[in-house]
Every structure is written in C-alpha cells, then in structure tokens.
C-alpha cells in the first residue's frame, strides 16, 4: 500500500493550486513543452524475492502539439532514480539504478475555461542498473494524473500535479544471480512548468 503521508502531500499540491487566483489567459493551440520535477513513493514487487519501497527523485520531459486548446497530445520521457549514479572521475561505476519511461501522453482540460486537467498515457518502461552481476529489462507501463495550471505570463504556466504510475518488466537479473520479473507502482507529486 502506498504511504498515506505521500497521498496527503500530493493532494495538498492540487488543493493549493485550485485556490490560487490566476489570470484568465486564452488557451492556445500549437506546440507545447513541459518539465516536471518531483518526489515519489515507488513500490516494487518481485517474482522471487521480497517487496521493496523507496522514496525517490522523479523527472519528466514532455512535448507535443495541441490541435484543440483543451487537448494536448505528445511524448513524455521520464522516470525515477532508485539509486544515484556516481558521476565523479575515478569513482565507483557500479552505482546507479532506476526506471525510465517513454510514454505517449494526453493532457485534457475537461471543463471549458478551467485550469484543471487530467493526464493519461502509456508506453515503454526500461529498468536499468549498474550493479555488478545485475542486468536491466524492458516492459510496459502507464500513468494517470491530475493537475492545475497556474498562469504566470505569456506562454508560461506552473502546475502542481499528482500522478499514479504502474508497469512491469520481465527477466531482470537483480539481485546478482537471480533472474526475476518485477512490477512497480509509484505515486508522485510534481511541480511542473509548461510552455504553450
């Protein structure tokens, strides 16, 4: 079960944004791009070993095109760092582990002239590891979420966002010498910046 603390924290983000006073800027069609940074509670279950839970850093980069002001379609590159890599010269290169996603996504504003949006998508998942004796795997996953745009100026918007992600990958060698399937679920609270 995902931590109740993180669920409350994520709902707080959306509540604060919903109460914010914003300028009623005309929504636009055309190209859009976004960057979301956040914190996640990631839980993984395994076919052979016990379950794990981590609190970790999350990041997404997205972009696409809006043919309708209420529907943004695009591609999202994202993921979670399960163990930080060591980037320094002459250091331990066996550190680092994470989950990466490449999703087709849609962001939809269900109420006309509202800043509230829902997000959904799915696609490829890649589990990677630099640990000695381990290897990554690929699979499929998806994401759903809700957020609220706060208009800043021009084409810039800031949006608190809460998302639930899920997926699986088969045949990862982790821990060393054990080949097993993994499933994950993640609840993530983001602060995002969107240009549209």
Question: Could you please describe the fold and organization of this structure?
Answer:
With 196 residues, the protein is mainly β. It has a single domain, classed as Porin (Beta Barrel). The chain is built from one helix and nine strands. An eight-stranded antiparallel beta barrel has the order 1-2-3-4-5-6-8-9. Strand 1 and strand 2 form a beta hairpin. The longest helix has 16 residues. The protein is elongated.
| Class derived from helix and strand content | mainly beta
Shape: elongated
CATH topology-level name: Porin
Strand content: over 45%
Taking the sheet with the most strands, its summary is: 8 strands, antiparallel, barrel
How would you describe the oligomerization state of the chains in this entry? single chain
Total DSSP E strands:
9
- Percent helix, as a range, is under 10%
Unreliable segments of 5+ consecutive residues: 12-26
Number of helical segments with 4 or more residues: 1
Q: Tell me the span between the first and last alpha carbons.
A: 36 Å
The gyration radius over C-alpha positions equals: 18 Å
Please tell me the total number of domains: 1
């Amino acid at each position: 079960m995902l931590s109740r603390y993180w669920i409350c924290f994520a709902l707080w983000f959306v509540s604060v944004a919903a109460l914010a006073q914003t300028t009623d800027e005309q929504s636009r069609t055309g190209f859009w791009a976004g960057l979301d940074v956040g914190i996640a509670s990631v839980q993984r279950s395994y076919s052979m070993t016990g379950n794990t839970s981590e609190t970790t850093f999350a990041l997404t980069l997205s972009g696409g095109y809006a043919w309708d002001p209420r529907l943004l379609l695009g591609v999202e590159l994202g993921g979670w760092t399960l163990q930080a890599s060591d980037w320094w010269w002459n250091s331990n290169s066996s550190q680092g582990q994470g989950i990466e996603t490449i999703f087709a996504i849609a962001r939809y504003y269900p109420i006309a002239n509202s800043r509230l949006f829902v997000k959904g998508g799915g696609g490829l998942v890649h589990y990677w590891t630099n640990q000695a004796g381990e290897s990554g795997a690929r699979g499929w996953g998806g994401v759903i979420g809700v957020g609220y745009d706060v208009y800043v100026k021009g084409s810039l918007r800031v949006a608190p966002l809460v998302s639930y992600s899920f997926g699986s990958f088969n045949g990862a060698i982790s821990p060393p010498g054990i080949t097993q399937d993994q499933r994950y679920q993640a609840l993530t609270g983001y602060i995002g910046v969107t240009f549209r």
